[in-house]
Amino acid sequence: MSRSPQALLERRYARLGLLLIAPTIVVFCAVIVYPLLAAIYLSLFQLYTPTLEGSFVGISNYRDLLARGEFWISLRNTLVWTVGTLSLQIVLGIGMALMLHQAVWFRSLARSLILFPYFVSTVVAVLVWRWLFNDLYGILNHMLIGSGVVDMPVDYLGSMPNAMISMILVGAWKYFPFVVIAVLARLQTIPDALYEAARIDGAGPIARFFDVTLPQLRDVLVVIILLRAIWDFKEFDLIFLLTGGGPVISTQTLPLLVYKEAFALNQMGMAAAYAVVMMAIMLVFMIVYIRQTREKEAS
Amino acid sequence: MMRRLLFNLMVWSAVLIVAFPLFWMVVTSLKPQLELWARPPAFLPIEPTVEHYVTLLQDTNFLVYFRNSIFLSTATTLVVIGVATLGAYSLVRFTYRGRESLAMLVLFTYLLPSVVLILPLYLMMVKLGLANTLFSLVLAYTTFALPYALWLLRSFMAGIPEDLESAALVDGASRMGAFRDVIFPQLLPGIISTALFTFILSWNEYLFALVLVNSDASRPLTTGVMNMLISSFNIEWSLLMAASVMMSVPLIIAFAFLQKYLTRGFGAGAVKG
């Protein structure tokens, strides 16, 4: 047995460390771990939301859900939305970051303006866009008709595929600043010598982008894409407020389906089953991301 | 010179297109009702008016919602920063079993969808009799704010040289003494960034507020303003735009005075390339 003062001190430190993390663990268990397990447990019941009465039904919720067309439609919508808005965010984000990396007049003002949509509340963003999209008095329709692109007012949110496209565009507008900032931070750390060498080799601006910039951005882009894919996949506010899943269920994604099942159709158990399945799908991305982070920390 | 001018024009037109919806929000909020229906719409209000702001503050529940949001975001931020600062210190500077797994659990919860947690949380709040209170929202907001703050503070903490703390310990300070006198001052900018982000996250939250609170007395701004849209018979867009501008005021203040902390938080967050 080692009873050296060193070992004693280390034991004391370990105890202090646990004491400091204790509040975190308590809160985590109460509001995250317990609800998470409770959600899985709930999914095995048929439960009527207002009275919270119901009965154990085992895995039949899951069997029902996989047989329902609505689940598969919502899953497809979620994927269309995620892939669509994410690709736009990445392309616009890299483009804007490359532009703002150059010497531009009033650069810091430009950066603030770009950052604003990301920080503004989704409620505000949606209200503004619904006003822009307004069929009769909205500025967008006015400009489109005025410039002769269309002759009839466009119904942006009430018909398909317009509603999905509008949603993807608003999502890209709201979230691409995240990509801009992350890419911009990385661009600043690329050594000038790399560009110098490429220039001496006779590479033009486009070749320099593909041969120097893009490979350097690779790592940060992987992280950004994983994170944004996870966040876009679980997006609720923007879609719920902008289209509410409509017309009918054409833009209804999985988070909206969970909400509808629990609080509009009052089927809490079924909603929990949807939520668990949704989480299982997300888990793939989450594990990849967590692994990525752990590897980076180890190195 | 010509190329530079063209490049600047291009960049600034892109920036202005992105910023246009926000510009339009301010313009609409200042237009008298009649000008709203003018075709073509004027790009600047012909007779600017603040009547919608007056209506908003006098005839609606806006101020109640605003007060609720301030209370809610402040309370969430204080609780979360307090817990997370100690937690991050423990996760970075102490060694005990399970520390690494704990860090990964934090990251996992940071990515977790709220929509999964909300069903049991709703049941929990109903059972505890906390539904429709601001307190239930503070509790619910820790589910996303605490993992977020912990993760951010953890990376700020990792950036502080370990030697500083060792030196203090050699000089006879206790761990907590060293934390107070050496670590905390170094961490302060990181704490400010994290607090700012936590505040903004709570200020903007919608889903929990929608599900957990159903009375005007304890509604925050997000659901409150949205309710003004749904419950009004004909939509008064200038009033809603005025509400949107007012709702963004804390954000504008943060942008004007604390931008340094805002961008620093971004860099230290999940995307540390």
TrEMBL record, chain A:
One of its GO terms (biological process) is transmembrane transport. The chain crosses the membrane at residues 16-42, 79-100, 112-133, 163-185, 238-259, 271-290. The keyword Membrane applies. Residues 75-289 form the ABC transmembrane type-1 domain. SUPFAM superfamilies: MetI-like. PANTHER family: ARABINOOLIGOSACCHARIDES TRANSPORT SYSTEM PERMEASE PROTEIN ARAP (PTHR43227:SF7), BLL4140 PROTEIN (PTHR43227). GO terms for cellular component: plasma membrane. Its main location: membrane. Keywords: Cell membrane, Membrane, Transmembrane, Transmembrane helix, Transport. It is found in: Cell membrane. Belongs to the binding-protein-dependent transport system permease family. It comes from Chromatocurvus halotolerans. It is a multi-pass membrane protein. Coiled coil: none annotated. This is Carbohydrate ABC transporter membrane protein 1 (CUT1 family).
UniProtKB/TrEMBL annotation, chain B:
It comes from Chromatocurvus halotolerans. Residues 66-258 form the ABC transmembrane type-1 domain. InterPro entries: BP-dep_ABC_trans_perm, MetI-like, MetI-like_sf. The chain crosses the membrane at residues 7-27, 70-92, 104-124, 130-153, 182-203, 237-258. It is a multi-pass membrane protein. This is Carbohydrate ABC transporter membrane protein 2 (CUT1 family). Belongs to the binding-protein-dependent transport system permease family. MalFG subfamily. The keyword Cell inner membrane does not apply. Keywords: Cell membrane, Membrane, Transmembrane, Transmembrane helix, Transport.
